[in-house]
Amino acid sequence: MNLREDSAARTRAALVDSGLRLAERLGLSAVSVNVLVAELGVSKGTFFHHFGSRANYLLALHREFHDRLQTEIETAIADLAPGHARLVAGSTAYLDACLRDRGVKALLLDARAEPLIADEVTHRNAHNAALIEPDFEALGWREPTDGARLWVALVAEAALLELRAGSRQRPVRDALWQFLSR
Predict the structure, then answer these.
(1) Nearest to 102 by CA among 136, 65, 135, 72
(2) C-alpha span between 179 and 182 (Å, rounded)
(3) Which helix (H) or strand (E) holds 74?
(4) Cβ atoms within 10 A of the Cβ of 126, count?
(5) Is the pLDDT of residue 98 over 90?
(6) 99 vs 137 pLDDT, higher one
């Protein structure tokens, strides 16, 4: 990477990081292009050069948040064989990260009305279901693909319940784990 490309990558990353912080502090609707560029001291042209539109920017925020989540989940399950313990560890890492960054998670849920983000959510959910399908195979599920897809939806709903409550909800998590103990 040359100096110019390195500088552009740093600027893009700064725009995304600032957006995540601002969204958590102000809420998604308050994060306008004007607020964002003022926060960073860059021009609107810089913003539009990197993202082209607010929808593309929201997509970048969504991807960054979920890429960070994915890294945390992979770390949590790294040494675990497919099965119950791995599903619980990965799901717990997801739920805890959503609570820790609750403003960001909430803002990204609001952004799902954007078609680009809705498509990204569909793609990411399918990807995550494929990653945990071996866990359902190891548990002996007759339909591991469908089990994995439903598990992704259950854990996402649990995250929403905890976001609304503002804290870990032991009954919600216990109910999740009961689904695995069939």
Answers:
(1) 65
(2) 6
(3) helix 54-77
(4) 13
(5) no
(6) 137
The residue to which tokens 């009954």 are assigned:
171
Which amino acid, residue 166?
A: G
Contact criterion met (CB below 8 Å) for 22 and 36: yes
The confidence score (pLDDT) of residue 87 equals 96
Q: Is 31 helix (H, G, I), strand (E, B) or coil?
A: coil
**Contact in structure between 102 and 20 (CB atoms under 8 Å):** no
Contact 82, 137 (CB under 8 A): yes
As given in the structure block, the two tokens for residue 24 are 């958590």
In which residue are the tokens 């560029």 written? Answer: 37
Tokens of 59: 């997509």
Least Cα distance to 102 among 169, 36, 176, 13 occurs for 169
* Cα 165 from Cα 158, distance rounded (Å): 11
Report residue 156 as tokens. 């996402």
Give residue for tokens 């609707």. Answer: 29
Lowest mean pLDDT among 17-21, 104-108, 145-149: 104-108
Apex 100 CA angle, 99 and 105, nearest 5: 60
Residue type at position 138: A
| Tens-place pLDDT, residues 73-82 | 999 999 999 9
Percent above pLDDT 90 for the chain? 48
DSSP secondary structure letter of residue 112: G
